[in-house]
């Protein structure tokens, strides 16, 4: 009897944690988009107002920020500073591939960043500013979408986790 | 071969080596050492053979690193991908950082090396906006020649004072090299002369070869540089803010330059500048120079040529009375 109660409690806790984890992915995605917007805003200042070289501009922009996108930008800056085989587009895509399996980063953000990478660094400051504006607008839309998804599915996964745990526990009991 | 590459990369040509894609870098580094040491230019033109210019002659590069003077069948043909890579490398993946330089048709590398650029330009209302397609590069290997100004100094310094000086010379006769060493010596000082504050208005980044505002050539310890700044504006800015004793600029030729030079003279600042001209008679044919010469603004007028080789000091005039101070050329 005691074993049954203990295993039921364990099942309920595990399922609830699973639900919370699933819900956390939606919340973390919103956070990552906000960090990305912040990095791009810093990068825009470095490029448009200070004309800092791209690798240094990236390093300056991520200095005080964290989140999953930071890994991507560090990778890009490292490749550019090594000045070896890769072009900027290749370095950008190679680094994007490294984070594309991250569950807290949406495909939509990856697509926005892929398109943005094709234009980065290869035109004058005025044009660069336009590309930053476009990327920021698209990210703003994605942030709103991510928030809606979080509202819709975040609570649902948390409740589902608990209910699933209780369901399994009742069946086993 | 490996040793030669290491030696070559160990010296100050590293910025040029870094600016080339791997395939071209290997070809350049494997060419004959005699040609490599005398290298003056690397010419890269899309869909055309890769060429180098060394000790006054041009050569074609073959894919195996051979260098020949006639156009060979197996000459390496520069691809569109090579051109794109070079543009990324020379601009540090940051075209936006070279907006103004691109408008003037060049990019300055670390070390003061200049890469000339040509291709399809985009025109605005009155000026070049940018390049749409860049297809040719001329990587120039500039060399600083220390003490090249020694022969000139006795003529432009009188009783410890620098004189207003105009250097006349046709292109490629060593004007800028001379200016660079004049700046170094006037700024650092030398036996019998205490160094003075020097201001350089380096409109085309040729004199000091600045990279991110830092001079890559030795232009002296008391020298301030306004890099990429129009001459007329720069002269006024230096007068107002940096209190130089001597202002050095290159290639005057616009009406506003004359006004700025007169402002500098009125402020008691000595000017050393240059102009494209083959001699004093030729200078009088040009309206801007003529007006300056008629006003007897310059106390010394130096004429450079190549009668004894590049950088020969052909003649020196006293600008106030036209008297010839140096009759026979010296080098």
How many strands in all of chain A?
Answer: 0
Which strand-content bin applies to the residues of chain A?
under 5%
What kind of assembly state do the chains in view correspond to?
heterodimer
**Domains of chain B (count):** 2
CATH superfamily of the largest domain in chain B: P-loop containing nucleotide triphosphate hydrolases
Characterise the protein shown here:
The complex is a heterodimer of chains A (about 170) and B (about 325). Chain A has helices at about 1-50, 55-60, 70-80, 90-100, 105-120, 125-170. With about 170 residues, chain A is mainly alpha-helical. In chain A, α1 crosses α2 (about 55-60), α2 (about 55-60) runs antiparallel to α3 and α5 packs antiparallel against α6 (about 125-170). The termini of chain A are close together. Chain B is α/β, with parallel strands linked by helices and about 325 residues long. Chain B folds into two domains: about 1-140, no CATH class; about 150-325, 3-Layer(aba) Sandwich (Rossmann fold). Chain B is built from twelve helices and 19 strands. An eight-stranded mixed beta sheet of chain B has the order 14-13-15-16-10-17-18-19, sandwiched between helices. A seven-stranded antiparallel beta sheet of chain B has the order 4-3-2-1-7-6-5. In chain B, α9 packs parallel to α10 (about 255-265). The longest helix of chain B has 14 residues, at about 175-190. Chain B starts with a helix and ends in a 5-residue tail after the last strand. The interface of A and B includes residues 51, 52 and 121 of A.
Keywords:
heterodimer, A: 173 residues, mainly alpha, elongated, B: 331 residues, alpha/beta, Rossmann fold, 2 domains, 8-stranded mixed sheet, 7-stranded antiparallel sheet, 12 helices, 19 strands, 29% helix, 28% strand, disordered N terminus
Summarize this structure briefly.
With 173 residues, chain A is mostly helical. Chain A contains six helices and no strands. Chain A is elongated.
